[in-house]
């Protein structure tokens, strides 16, 4: 763990101690705030109950269709995830294809603290969409929702929905499946929408920004040639050695044709900057400046709000939101205890029709559905743990 990560967790601990003191000092429980000893704050509010109820009942038929489709999507997500995890293991052990890291997201350990704001906003929204979808599905099935609210857990937050377990247990087979798969369905839909927005990013921001007409500097590496010659975050570049650049791709293409240790002239919004470049760490024959750039989209309106840097931050948020949404949709539907998939497949495979047929397992008769469930549980947990272990062994544990 680097120094920044240690500092972050120290401040995080101090923050929680202060919250705990304030909670006790001002008796915040009277405002429906509950502080748990395992660093969770819950805020229950009837207003959210009312909002979710109106959304559910106003479009009840629509939600029933969507969440019925979600049942089949949930089964497909599970099969896809198991196939991915198995293929990843085969790629690792037999050296065929590319191995994808499967890692828990821990600030400062598995991803940079620079990405923490995008991570926090994304995971809060993913939690809210997931939990509120459960609430909408429950209301649409005429089940009792005891509490709806918001939570803050360590450094992440989100929504939560508490269902009446008696109502849930007595609900019909199809109602249970709709409710249990609804959260994953919501995450899948929002993840796909964010992918579409990433693929059509210029169009998405077109009401507020023009087409890309240069690049904006988003990071200057300390000690690099760019930092020594005065390049700053937020600098907008239009030309390199007199060659017009329109986006990050043309920026990379122009630099790739400049030899190492060459003099590079950057035409920026604040004038020309002359830099003596170095040699690129991965290709010593090419010039190295030490900057990361993103497309520059000139603001059309209200530049004090829609700043040149905003598209870069929005693009990063969309990438994180897409990754977390789709991960929540697919991983959460694995038939593992404490995951939605654990209970979903219990309902699906423990019904009387499937278990009317028996199979011999460890010297005793067991329903076919029960047997399939146990195999799925063991296989899912094994595949997931093996993938995480191999990622740790490979050292593939740090993301930007």
Quick take:
The protein is an alpha+beta fold and 400 residues long. Helices cover 52% and strands 17% of the residues.
Report on the architecture of this protein.
The mean pLDDT is 84. Strands 5, 6, 7, 8, 9 and 12 form a 6-stranded antiparallel β-sheet that branches. A 4-stranded antiparallel β-sheet has the order 1-2-3-4. Strands 10-11 form a two-stranded antiparallel sheet. Helix 2 (46-58) packs across helix 4 (116-140), helix 4 packs across helix 10 (310-331) and helix 6 crosses helix 11. 30% of the residues are buried. The protein has helices at residues 3-25, 46-58, 60-94, 116-140, 165-170, 173-199, 201-204, 225-228, 248-256, 310-331, 340-349, 352-355, 368-394, and strands at 33-36, 40-44, 145-153, 156-163, 215-220, 236-240, 243-244, 263-268, 271-276, 278-279, 287-288, 291-295, 358-361, 364-367. 52% of the residues lie in helices and 17% in strands. The longest helix has 35 residues, at 60-94. It contains 13 helices and 14 strands. With 400 residues, it is an alpha+beta fold. The chain folds into 2 domains: 44-202 and 316-394, no CATH class; 215-296, Roll (Pdz3 Domain), CATH 2.30.42.
H and E order: HEEHHHEEHHHEHEEHEEEEEHHHEEH
Radius of gyration: 26 Å
Largest sheet: 6 strands, antiparallel
Count of alpha/pi helices = 13
The dominant shape is: globular
Number of strands: 14
Q: Residue-averaged pLDDT, rounded? A: 84
Helix content: 40-55%
First CA to last CA: what distance? 15 Å
Structural class: alpha+beta
Show unreliable segments: none
Strand content: 15-25%
Q: How many distinct folded domains?
A: 2
């Amino acid at each position: 763990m680097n120094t920044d990560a240690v500092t972050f967790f120290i401040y995080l601990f101090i923050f929680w101690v202060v919250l705990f003191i304030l909670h006790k000092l001002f008796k915040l429980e009277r405002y429906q705030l509950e502080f748990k000893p395992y660093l969770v704050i819950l805020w229950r509010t009837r207003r959210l109950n009312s909002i979710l109820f109106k959304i559910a009942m106003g479009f009840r038929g629509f939600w029933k269709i969507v969440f019925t489709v979600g049942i089949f999507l949930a089964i497909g997500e599970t099969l896809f995830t198991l196939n991915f995890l198995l293929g990843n293991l085969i790629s690792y052990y037999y050296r065929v294809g590319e191995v994808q890291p499967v890692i828990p997201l821990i600030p400062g350990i598995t991803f940079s603290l620079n990405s923490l704001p995008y991570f926090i906003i994304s995971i809060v929204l993913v939690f809210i969409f997931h939990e509120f979808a459960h609430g909408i599905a429950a209301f649409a099935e005429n089940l009792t929702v005891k509490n709806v609210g918001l939570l803050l857990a360590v450094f992440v937050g989100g929504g939560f929905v508490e269902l009446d377990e008696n109502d849930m247990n007595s609900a019909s087979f199809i109602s249970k499946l709709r409710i249990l798969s609804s959260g994953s369905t919501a995450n899948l839909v929002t993840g796909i929408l964010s992918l579409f927005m990433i693929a059509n990013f210029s169009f998405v921001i077109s009401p507020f920004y023009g087409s890309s007409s240069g690049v904006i500097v988003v990071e200057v590496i300390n000690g690099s040639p760019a930092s020594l010659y005065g390049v700053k975050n937020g600098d907008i570049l239009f030309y390199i050695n007199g060659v017009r650049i329109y986006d990050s791709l043309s920026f990379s293409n122009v630099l790739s044709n400049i030899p190492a240790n060459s003099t590079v002239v950057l035409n920026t919004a604040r004038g020309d900057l002359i830099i003596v470049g170095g040699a690129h760490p991965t290709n010593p024959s090419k010039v190295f400046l030490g900057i990361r750039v993103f497309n520059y989209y000139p603001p059309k309106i209200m530049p004090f709000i829609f700043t040149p840097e905003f598209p870069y931050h929005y693009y990063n948020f969309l990438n994180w939101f897409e990754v977390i949404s789709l991960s929540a949709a697919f991983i959460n539907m694995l038939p593992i205890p404490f995951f939605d998939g654990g209970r979903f497949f219990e309902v699906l495979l423990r019904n009387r029709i499937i278990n009317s047929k028996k199979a011999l397992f460890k010297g005793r008769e067991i329903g076919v559905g029960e047997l399939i469930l146990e195999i799925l549980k063991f296989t899912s947990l094994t595949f997931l743990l093996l993938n995480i272990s191999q990622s740790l062994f490979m050292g593939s544990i740090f993301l930007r």
